[in-house]
């Protein structure tokens, strides 16, 4: 890899952009492919699958030409809006599953270090936090405060950022009112349909711990089944 290509790769990783280093194993020629830039040939189809799986592979075409596809995906992370009992259970589960997790809640009575020891906890309004630490396609947003003043802004931001997972706590009735508010705020119907509500896989979860397990399972499912970018907009983003 040339120094120029290495600098470009490192810049993409710093910017949390999905990128792949493709090397022709016969000639040594290499290049970077950004998510959404693949062609529709056999190699392009493998590139797309590799972006989805996140696992580097060697691909051999019908002509015998072999390529090494070394994929670099940003580490998936979880942003939880609400320092509640579910969040307390979700934090260690996320850590075990290999996800970075941040909890945001302006209510200092809930967002206390005593309740969330060792957790990246931010006791500020979510809109301020997300302006400094923007969401992206490799972020899962979990809204669990039940307070529209706290949850609605991050949900809207998550849909605009195309987070791979957007979930919100609440009954279907509660979610119906949430959809009405977000629709009035300008969020399109297609985006609203992406909100997982009631949150978590339907495993009959009842306790905060069980709900946290259901949420984590749904996040993993969304990450592993996510659709890579469909066009070449990523490189110009």
Set out the fold topology.
Elements: H1 3-14, E1 19-24, E2 30-34, H2 42-53, E3 57-60, E4 66-72, E5 77-81, H3 85-97, E6 100-104, E7 120-122, H4 126-132, E8 139-143, H5 148-160, E9 165-168, H6 172-184, H7 189-192, E10 195-196, H8 208-224
Parallel strand pairs: 5-6, 5-8, 6-7, 8-9, 9-10
Antiparallel strand pairs: 1-2, 1-4, 3-4
Helix pairs in contact: 3-8
Number of domains: 2
- Arrangement of strands in the largest sheet: 7-6-5-8-9-10
User: How would you state the average pLDDT, rounded?
Assistant: 90
CATH architecture group name of the largest domain: 3-Layer(aba) Sandwich
Major sheet, described briefly? 6 strands, parallel
- Beta content: 15-25%
| Helix/strand order | HEEHEEEHEEHEHEHHEH
Domain XdhC Rossmann: 78-219
Pfam families: XdhC_C
InterPro entries: MoCofactor_Util/Proc, XdhC_Rossmann_dom
Protein name: XdhC family protein
Question: What report would you give on this structure?
Answer:
The protein is of the alpha/beta class. It folds into two domains: about 5-75, no CATH class; about 75-225, Rossmann fold. The chain is built from eight helices and ten strands. The protein has helices at about 5-15, 40-55, 85-95, 125-130, 150-160, 170-185, 190, 210-225, and strands spanning about 20-25, 30-35, 55-60, 65-70, 75-80, 100-105, 120, 140-145, 165-170, 195. It has a six-stranded parallel beta sheet, with helices on both faces. β5, α3 and β6 (about 100-105) form a beta-alpha-beta unit. α3 crosses α8. The model is unreliable at about 230-235 (pLDDT under 50).
């Amino acid at each position: 890899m040339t120094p120029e290509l290495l600098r470009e790769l490192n810049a993409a990783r710093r910017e949390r952009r999905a990128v792949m280093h493709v090397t022709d194993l016969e000639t040594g020629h290499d290049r970077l492919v950004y998510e959404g830039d693949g062609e529709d040939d056999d190699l392009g189809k493998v590139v797309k699958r590799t972006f989805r799986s996140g696992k580097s592979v060697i691909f051999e075409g019908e002509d015998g030409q072999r390529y090494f596809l070394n994929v670099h995906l940003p580490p998936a992370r979880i942003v939880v809006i609400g320092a509640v009992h579910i969040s307390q259970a979700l934090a260690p589960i996320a850590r075990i599953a290999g996800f970075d997790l941040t909890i945001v809640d302006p209510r200092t009575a809930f967002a206390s270090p005593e309740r969330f020891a060792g957790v990246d906890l931010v006791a500020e309004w979510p809109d301020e936090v997300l302006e400094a630490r923007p969401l992206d396609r490799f972020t899962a947003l979990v809204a669990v405060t039940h307070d529209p003043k706290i949850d609605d802004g991050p949900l809207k931001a998550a849909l605009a950022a195309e987070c791979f997972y957007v979930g919100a706590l609440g009954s279907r009735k509660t979610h119906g009112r949430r959809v009405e508010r977000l629709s009035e705020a300008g969020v399109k119907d297609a985006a609203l349909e992406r909100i997982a509500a009631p949150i978590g896989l339907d495993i009959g979860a009842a306790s905060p711990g069980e709900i946290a397990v259901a949420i984590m399972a749904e996040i993993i499912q969304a990450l592993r089944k996510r659709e890579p970018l469909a066009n070449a907009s990523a490189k110009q983003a």
